[in-house]
Design brief:
Structural class: mainly alpha
Distance between the termini: 23 Å
CATH superfamily of the largest domain: MFS general substrate transporter like domains
Pfam family, one: Sugar_tr
Number of domains: 2
Order of helices and strands: HHHHEHHHEEEHHHHHHHHHEHHHHHHHHE
Family: Belongs to the major facilitator (TC 2.A.1) superfamily. Organic cation transporter (TC 2.A.1.19) family.
GO cellular component, one term: basolateral plasma membrane
Number of strands: 6
CATH class of the largest domain: Mainly Alpha
Subcellular location: Basal cell membrane; Basolateral cell membrane
CATH topology of the largest domain: Growth Hormone, Chain: A
Largest sheet: 2 strands, antiparallel
Strand content: under 5%
CATH architecture of the largest domain: Up-down Bundle
Shape: globular
Keywords: Cell membrane, Glycoprotein, Ion transport, Membrane, Transmembrane, Transmembrane helix, Transport
Amino acid sequence: MPTLDDILENVGEFDRFQKQTFFVLCLLSAAFTPVYVGVIFFGFIPEHRCFSPGVAELSQRCGWSLEEQLNHTVPEWGGRGASFGSRCRRDGGAWEGRVCTDPLGSLVGNWSTVPLGPCQDGWVYDSPGTSLVTEFNLVCEDSWKLDLFQSSVNAGFFIGSINIGYIADRFGRKFCLLNTILANVVCGILLVFVPTYLWIVIFRFLQGLVSKGCWTAGYILVTEVVGPKYRRTVGILYQTAFSVGLLVFDAIAYAIPHWRWLQLTVTLPSCFFLLYYWCLPESPRWLISQGKNDKAMKIVSDMAKKNQKKMPSHFEDIKFEEEDGGKQSPSLIDLVRTPQMRRNTFILMYNWFTSSVLYQGLIMHMGIAAGNMYLDFLYSALVEFPAAFIIIVTIDHVGRRYPWAAANLVAGAACLVTALIPEDIHWLKVIAACIGRMGITMAFEMVCFVNTELYPTYIRNLGVMVCSSLCDIGGVIVPFIVYRLVEVWHDLPLIVFTVLGLIAGGLVLLLPETKGRVLPETVEDVENFHGQSAPKAKKIYLHVQTSEV
């Protein structure tokens, strides 16, 4: 009895039709970058200090350079231990009558006697561009508002993961893609023009609500239109397109250092994604799972025509066999109803959480000793390409489970090594941190496509969305893990990352191997994964329809 994979072997598993679909969806993956990591450039924090009219007048009268002004008027400027006082407090005394040679000379060695007060006249920022921080003064007592800006998009990711996932499984991948693309474009453009911080946070939340669901629906679609031999490759390359987006976003941000113009520049190209209505197919697997066999076969016929393949005559008229008496509707309880589904769900949830915490946390931790923002971002993006290459080279021979477990273990061990290397051997710490970043990037990419292989078609998108929602929870709490723990010990966050990574590597070994298996169509297929030594025939069949006389 033929299955959809059997038909794909005849009409093309990854020919012109699938390559076109893959290419246009990779553009969508790359465009997700500004939403996921945009806070790095939209909310960059330049060097800043309190603005004082008296200091400005004295500096003009004395003819100071900027460096001389800082040294003469800001107590312990550049001192690591007094950074808050240097940037968030100013000398509250009168500046009239102070001499140009050394206005704070009498206070040297006794800065505690300086009458410091709040920055009631605002701040001066040493930056040629603008950001959310410089426009709304999100520093000092209001620095938490930048955290809220990033938390809002992650909160949107979290809520949207389940809701958009249900829409994609209930109404189709293409319907979900087009509607979330439109909503993302509208919210992105409105972000450029709203004048207040509150409305920016609201629209950022709404953008998060739809954008991650859009990216994941694209991932599901691209893996469902190709044959099993190419599924893992297109899944990895779809994520590599996100890495390409990191490089492009970095270049655009370097050229446009003003956050509103940058937001507009990265949003407008997404309008072209609405053309997907004409150039993207619906997933034939989803159509089959919903009993829409005629529409599925129409797409398969178009696939054969574009691939310049002839569909065998016995595949031309088929019907859908409904094992359960009708189409299957996705339900959250199905994710934990049976033992293997329950185990898969909890382990995948933990690995999504760990991948997010380590992936974002390592970037944040390396950025604490800030150098060139654009170069640091470039280095962190480039390390993702060898990670993808290693996966592609090894996974077909070894399988999914062992490389995935090894990637988590390497990431955890590298974090521990980085923490133990002395600060004066900085180059070695950077190398160890990059190895950890490479390991967690591999783990992050693998959890995406293995997640799709461990759930049946009718609930696949919902399963990915629910499990990946733990990634968003990790994204919300990781700033607190990094920035609060470094106050106790600079490398303490790395110890936390070590524990999380090692546990994740051990749990992966409890999952079934999915190498070379057809995508499961029913919960029974998932439950039988461990007992199978070879790919199992599907429970959803495409039968030859014979005419009755």
